Amino acid sequence: MDTIVKPGRLNESWRWVIKMAWKDSRRNRTRLFIFILSIALGIAALVGINSFKSSLVSEINNQAKELLGADLAIGGQSKSFTEEAYKFTSDIPGEKSYESSFASMIYFPRTDGTRLMNVKSLKGAYPYYGIIETDPPEAADQFKKGQFALVDESVMLQYNVAVGDDVKVGETLFNIVGKLKKVPGQTEIGTTVAPVVYIPLDYLGGTGLMKKGSRINQTVYYKIDDPNEVAETDEGFRKELDEMGIYLETVEDRKRDTGRAFSDLADFLNLVAFVALLLGCIGVSSSVFVYIKEKIKTVAILRCLGASSNQVFFIFLSQIAIFGLIGAVIGAAIGVFIQGYLPVLLQDFIPVEVNSAISWVSILQGVFLGLFISILFTLLPLLKVRKVAPLGVIREIVSKKSDSWMLSGIIYTIIFLFVWFFSKLQIGEWLEAFFFTLGIVAAFILLTLTGKAVIWLVRKFFPKSVGFVWRQGMANLYRPNNQTLTLVVTIGLGTALISSLYSMQDLLIQQITISGEGDRPNMVLFDIQTPQIKEVQEITLDYDMPIIQDVPVITMTLKEINGINKYQAISDSTLGYKKWVYNREYRVTYREKLISSEKIVDGKWRGEYQEGDSVFISISKGFAQGINVNIGDEILFNVQGALIKTYVGSFREVDWRRVQTNFLVLFPKGVLEDAPQFNVLVTKTTSGDYASRYQQAIVRNFPNISIIDLGLILSTLEEILGKISFVIQFMALFSIATGLLVLLSSVITSKYQRIEENVLLRTLGASKSQIWKILFTEYFMLGTIASSAGLFISMVGSLLLAKYVFEIPYAPNYISLIGVFLIITSLTVIIGLLNSRSVTNNPPLQVIRKEV
Amino acid sequence: MPSILSVSDLSKIYTNAHTKKDLKILDQINFNIEKGASFSIVGPSGSGKTTLLGLCAGLDQVTSGSIVLNDIKLDNLNEDQLAKVRNDHVGFVFQNFQLIPTLTALENVMIPLELRGEKNAESSSKDLLARVGLSERMIHYPVQMSGGEQQRVSIARAFSNNPKILFADEPTGNLDEETSQSIEELLFQINKESGTTLVIVTHDLELAAKTDHMIRLKGGKIISN
Ligand SMILES: Nc1ncnc2c1ncn2[C@@H]1O[C@H](COP(=O)(O)OP(=O)(O)OP(=O)(O)O)[C@@H](O)[C@H]1O
Ligand SMILES: [Mg+2]
Q1: Could you give the 3-state DSSP secondary structure of residue A608?
Q2: Nearest residue on chain A to B56, alpha-carbon basis
Q3: Are the C-beta atoms of A778 and A477 separated by less than 8 Å?
Q4: B128: which DSSP letter?
Q5: pTM of the model
Q6: Which of B59, B70, B79, B56 lies closest to B8, judged by CA?
Q7: CA of residue A525 relative to chain centroid, distance
Q8: Separation between Cα atoms, residue B31 and residue A805, nearest integer Å
Q9: Which of A3, A477, A661, A755 has its CA 20 to 30 A from that of A611?
Q10: Ligand 1 binding pocket includes B151 (Cβ within 6 Å)
Q11: Residue A152 pairs with which residues in a beta bridge?
Q12: For residues A617 and A667, is the Cβ–Cβ distance under 8 A?
């Protein structure tokens, strides 16, 4: 008989638990809601980014052909396109288009402007998929039919050039028939860095830019209707082409590469969102901690009336779960909105157009995650519920049972593993994720200790002589039910996370801002051919500009390291030499003395080659580690046909941030003098006007010379950085908003602890202003301590980041630190005071009846 | 008459956590309560009345001796088994009412019934509240009621599970004389009507005199029975 009744009873009991959970929440809903909302924002950010990522991936898949513009592309540097290679490319069946591209100075005669641009010369019907977007649209086809050009839209705007004007590329004038708006597969950022000029391939010869020394990239685009044919070509030719230094790219390759690049971006944003989520978790955890403390009496009564400890535990667990679920659903809903905004925010970074389709998978994941973490992070305080004895109804008892250390240990472990695992998902590396998690744990411990120290110190050195209100306010820091620990940890951690985010951004900007101010050079001339050197120097001096550096550059490839060539290295990976080491082109200079931006860290620098001796070269330390060579190793270089055997004589430390011509590989005097080479000249201009006239003079005389205007590069970098930091700030906004919510919920929670006391004070005759002052003292102390502890942590974190990751000196931005400090402290005080308004504005009795 | 509660050789010792000194709160207590009787425990403050009551109701563990409640030996039961015993057989009324602040009067009364999974928890709780004269205040929260009203709610709650025995620890200690009078009357009336055994802790000798039996505690010992 019992067996029939039992399941019913069990069900009944569960129903009661849920019902109680719901009933009991009625008078606490605002609070439950606010602290659950802290999680919602983190979830929102995650769902938004993940849905965006999934629509981005599917867009990339859909538009992969448009990204490449063809079914297949084969390309490489023009020196690799030997007769043999050329035969390969023509043997592949299908419709073909040819593109040669290179960097060159172009000149706008009407407005007298010059600029380094990416010149692409095209022949054929490319793109076969997607379009070259132009204004007017028909210009995309028209330019191929004569001596016409398409010029990047923003460059035209910047140089005040209109459709119909001319542009001079090398020695040929082209008529501009359209503004170039979008090139297949290129992002807005890519266009900013290397703006494009299109000209027809048939006119390339006339520009005179195909001379030796110009580095030209050749690409052949194919339209192949039969997918099997693409696959066959891929299988048959890829390896052979690769050995010639020529790459083969299919739609699949492009899809994969693009996808990978943008999932990195999404992962970074996810990490920022995760920080917001963590912040929310900590907020929820601490609020629940206080919340449960207040529920002890209720628990004791329920236990006294015969509820089992499990039943009571599940009442509060399901209460948290219900609200966690609501929070997660709200978060996911906000996430859908964010997803709609992200494509706008990131449009400059992505090569495809993203229509935000709702990703139910991401939404479900978000809801589940929200539910999971709201439970995970509240289990610790909830466990206390199981330890409440029914005796509590008779008298307040100090809980003597603390045998749940094993359970809390397990929960701490799960939390640690969860944070580790989740940050691994975002960072990608187990070890880095581990350190990230460890950092958070360290911050947590440090803040807990700070909180404890504050309690101890205030009690120990209590200023007995100050006035009543100050004493009350200070005493609130250590009296029973104080909120010191909770607020110091949550506000402190929030401050630390947000301020670290900002200082990281500062570091990034700092790393790039090495502007051409002061005595630093700001203009670099490339590709000066040997016969041109003298004249270029003269022009430079004519314009009253210094020749800061004039160095020869020789390009070469690496043939063997210690006798190991590329094929041996590929077939036996245990040798430890990577393929790219052999594939890349090395730009090398020779000189007798080292320059100020480099110093020897290992071995000995031999500045001059002695007849009959070996050639000892110097390699940058970092690069040597990258290619895995040691002092004394033998390296065989191929210098445009001639083989030169060298030995690694020394390692150099190179300060790459100095505007100078720095080299990975440095030869001594006396070896490369007769090798084909070009020169690089570094100079400095004073005024912008002067700079442009100098550039024009050089370009008019030597169209093959490229000029890099560092001022222009810096402003471009700043523009890009501005866009990036806007994206970061958008994500940081979630951390900040979460931080505010956490602050709000902590303060609201604490309000309930203080209310009885404050009402009592009011009843005893304390004036409004006295209550305000007490509250002010308490929140001011808390805000000050918490935010300075947080800032301290973030400074230590930034210092470590600067030292070990960015490897630059860390100079804290004191103004922004003080700003953060003031903002957090005053927010704590303001929110604290606003929240306690009801205590002072309403009659005491009413407050008690309504709020307790 | 069969006994509902029998206490034999009961002692309770608290050990001070700091000084490690033993504090004997109850010393060799013996008594027996018959079913349906009314019973009072009196004595000066600090004599151990509340402690004794708590032990009898299974809210705390004895140091030595044993308690048998409705033929159930409480000594070896664990917390959840004790909870079940309380839910099945015991009712409580406290000096400071002990209502759950987040629940209405009606919901407070319903808890013991709901814990048992009873179907008509609501209607019988409403009846009970009507009996204590609170049919108008069912959806009020504890803070919205006076002390006397709150105590009446807790009496309704105490009787809601038809307990075999009801423990009341100074049920009128916080109330004025008139209200105390009516609360006392209510207790005795329901006690009679439902045949529940009533155990009252009080230092009001007038009230104690109304009960069938009385024990006097002093310094943890029974000085008269
Ligand atoms: N957990 C404890 N630890 C130490 N001593 C305790 C503890 N609980 C109660 N006592 C002591 O036991 C004695 C009896 O307390 P109890 O509450 O039973 O007295 P009482 O008779 O109910 O008094 P009152 O009439 O004032 O309510 C008191 O001296 C009290 O200090
Ligand atoms: Mg007592």
Answers
A1: strand
A2: A391
A3: yes
A4: H
A5: 0.72
A6: B56
A7: 33
A8: 78
A9: A661
A10: no
A11: A180
A12: yes
Q: How are strands ordered across the β-sheet holding B38-42?
A: B90-93, B165-169, B197-201, B38-42, B213-218, B221-224
**Which atom of ligand 1 lies closest to the CA of B44?**
25
Whether the per-residue pLDDT at B153 is higher than 90: the answer is: yes
Pull the structure tokens for residue A561: 């390291």
Rounded-to-10 torsion of CA A38, A43, A44, A48? 160
Cβ neighbourhood burial of B35 (10 Å; 0-12, 13-18, 19+) = middle
Contact status, residue B23 vs residue B207, Cβ threshold 8 Å: no
What SS3 state is found at A631?
A: coil
∠ CA B14-B17-B19 to the nearest 5 degrees?
95
Ligand nearest to the CA of B56: 1
How far apart are alpha carbons B110 and B115 in whole angstroms?
9
- The band of A440, judged by pLDDT with boundaries at 50, 70 and 90, is confident
Among the bound ligands, name the one nearest to the CA of residue A392.
1
Looking at CA atoms only, how far is residue A506 from chain B in angstroms? Answer: 50
Q: For residue A696, which of A552, A539, A541 has the smallest C-alpha distance?
A: A539
pLDDT digits (tens, 9 = 90+) for A776-816: 888 898 889 989 999 998 888 888 877 776 666 777 888 88
CA distance A204 to A122: 9
**Distance (Å, whole) CA A522 – CA A524:** 7
Ligand 2 centroid from CA A463, angstroms? 39
* Distance in Å, CA B169 to ligand 2 centroid: 7
- Residue A307, classed as helix, strand or coil, is coil
The 10s digit of each residue's pLDDT in A95-116 is: 999 999 988 888 999 988 888 8
**Residue range A513-558, pLDDT digits in tens:** 554 445 677 888 888 888 889 999 999 888 888 888 888 999 888 8
Asked whether residue B18 carries a pLDDT value surpassing 90, the answer given is no
Mean pLDDT, rounded, for A677-683: 88
Q: How far apart are CA A399 and CA A391, in angstroms?
A: 11
Q: Output the CA angle A151-A156-A160, nearest 5 degrees.
A: 150
- What is the three-class DSSP state of A54? helix
Domains with residue ranges and CATH for chain B: 36-61+87-224 (3.40.50.300)
In the structure, ligand 2 is a single-atom ion and the residues with CB under 5 Å from it are B 50
**How far apart (Å, rounded) are the C-alpha atoms in residues A675 and A672?**
5
Q: Which pLDDT band holds residue A617 (cuts at 50, 70, 90)?
A: very high
pLDDT tier for residue A848 given thresholds of 50, 70 and 90: low
The per-residue b/e assignment along B103-140, b for 16 or more CB within 10 angstroms, e otherwise, is bbbbbbbbbbbbbbbbeebbebbbebbebbebeebbeb
Distance of CA A687 to the CA centre of its chain: 35
Set of chain B residues whose Cβ sits within 8 Å of the Cβ of A310: 80
Q: What is chain B's Cα-based Rg? A: 17
Where in B70-187 does DSSP place strands (E)?
Answer: 72-73, 90-93, 165-169
**Mean of the per-residue pLDDT values of chain A:** 82
Which residue, judged by its Cα, is nearest atom 16 of ligand 1? Answer: B48
Determine the residue type at A290. Answer: V
Tokens of A63: 């538009």
Cα separation of B171 and B154, whole Å?
A: 10
Report, as an integer, the average pLDDT of A408-415.
89
Beta strands in A660-803 (DSSP E): 665-667, 678-683, 706-709
Q: How far is CA A657 from CA A511, A618, A662, B86, B141, in A?
A: 8, 19, 10, 78, 70
Selection from A294-308, A717-731, A737-751, A827-841 with the highest mean pLDDT? A294-308
Residue in chain B nearest A388 by alpha carbon:
B79
**Least confident segment among A30-34, A411-415, A562-566, B142-146:** A30-34
Q: What are phi and psi of A311, to 5 degrees?
A: -60, -50
Say yes or no: ipTM exceeds 0.90: no
